[in-house]
Amino acid sequence: MNKVFAHAMEALHDVSDGATLMLGGFGLCGIPENSIAALVEKGVSGLTCISNNAGVDDFGLGLLLQRRQIKKMLSSYVGENAEFERQLLSGELEVDLIPQGTLATRIQMAGMGIPAFFTPAGVGTEIAEGKETRTFDGKTYLMELALHADFALVKAWKGDRYGNLVFRKATRNFSTSMARAGNITIAEVEELVEPGMLDPDEIHVPGIYVHRIFQGTGYEKRIERRTLAKAQV
């Protein structure tokens, strides 16, 4: 099976209106920049996007929000995007805010084939409305369902033609779990290498989970919020 595609547009050829997408990244760290740009160019709409956050106004998922391509967001943190806030408050955008640990675990469970799990996060809040609860050892827990997607879009540091992926430092974030949870996983990599060039002990996502892979270009790797230490006098 040939998993290698020439570029993002070719790899995302069947992403259509109404699709549910998982997009790796934490803030702007490790986001699939080329895949997002391809979605913007394709003009697909009515998307449901699962991501820890919604990018910023002019970068990342913020580009899709600007063009009204996203119908619904499932996220944990959305405080850096003014357009997201505007669409939410005006009723233009459906939003499920999910505790960050719950979001990560729902994705992990999907990749592991576990349909649901129980967590104390959200008990007694709006998060719990309509959800089953159980008591264990005198403590109440919510049942949360595993979170699946039509497509998982992730960005790795290196990958080979079999789809084995290596991430660099914090870029691993949500991507390693999402790669296992998508019905179709599309990986963009900074460097596409031949099989056998990756150390098996360094592979973070085995190729069995990855359906398509391409080498990305022109990464900005923008820093969302730069913090500098004051010089010592």
UniProtKB/TrEMBL annotation:
Record flagged with keyword Transferase: yes
Molecular function via GO: succinyl-CoA:3-oxo-acid CoA-transferase activity
InterPro entries registered for this protein in UniProt: 3-oxoacid_CoA-transf_A (IPR012792), CoA_trans_fam_I (IPR004165), CoA_transf_BS (IPR004163), NagB/RpiA_transferase-like (IPR037171)
Origin superkingdom: Bacteria
UniProtKB keywords: Transferase
Pfam families: CoA_trans
Protein name (record): 3-oxoacid CoA-transferase subunit A
Species: Cnuella takakiae
